Amino acid sequence: MLSAESIEKIEYELAKYPKDKRQAAVMSALRIVQMERGWLSKESISEVANYLRIPEIAALEVASFYNMYDLQPVGEYKLTICTNISCMLRGSDEIVEHLQHKLGVGFNEVTPDGKFCLKEGECMGCCGGAPLLHVNNAVMHEFLTTEKVDALINELSKA
Fold first, then answer.
1. The dihedral of CA 116, 120, 124, 127: what is its sign?
2. Which of 99, 88, 93, 94 is nearest to 130 (CA)?
3. 93: domain range?
4. Domain check: are 82 and 60 in the same one?
5. Tens digit of pLDDT for each residue in 97-134?
6. Is 126 annotated as a binding residue?
7. Are the beta carbons of 116 and 103 closer than 8 angstroms?
8. Which residues are registered as beta bridge partners of 61?
9. Please, is 30 exposed, middle or buried when counting C-beta atoms within 10 Å of its C-beta (0-12, 13-18, 19+)?
10. Distances in whole angstroms, Cα of residue 134 to Cα of each of 24, 27, 53, 102, 116
11. Which one has a higher pLDDT value, 97 or 158?
């Protein structure tokens, strides 16, 4: 069941659209629920669809299309690294290999302590800062090197 806090936030988003266009708020509603629960289970997606009064498949299509939505549990820190052409040409492959070795996980896996999850991301629109990664869909780190990655992992490990 959606929490009162989530419903309040979803209602705020719904107010931005005509009353007969509730589906327009699906991305925001999914983000709100994911922020609260950490990821989007099938039940969470169904709850969002029911609340918005849209077909469940419509919410699932959005959740499964965009890589910012997590359809399985993720670590405390989700590291999404861009592997598209600009980042690849500027060394993202080396960064990916380094992260996978350092964390001991592949893409879409969580470290045994639950601290980190490594995700492969699509272009994040900051090609001038390549290679780059997002932490928890919020904080972007640009111009990555293996040394910068090590410092980031050490900092997050202490948090």
1. positive
2. 88
3. 77-158
4. no
5. 999 999 999 999 999 999 999 999 988 899 999 999 99
6. no
7. yes
8. none
9. buried
10. 26, 19, 32, 17, 12
11. 97
Whole-number pLDDT of residue 122? 87
| Residue 14 CA neighbour count, 13 Å, CB half | 17
Computed over every residue of the chain, the mean pLDDT equals 95
15-71, pLDDT tens digit by residue? 999 999 999 999 999 999 999 999 999 999 999 999 999 999 999 999 999 888 999
> Quick one: 89 and 146 in the same domain?
yes
Q: Are residues 24 and 49 in the same domain?
A: yes
Residue 140 scores a pLDDT above 90? yes
Total number of domains constituting the chain: 2
Distance CA 39, CA 136 (A): 11
CB 62 within 8 A of CB 26: yes
pTM: 0.80
Residue linked to tokens 């080396």: 94
> Residue 114: left (phi > 0), alpha (psi -120 to 50), or beta?
left
Asked if pLDDT for residue 159 goes beyond 80, the answer is no
Q: Is 87 annotated as a binding-site member?
A: yes
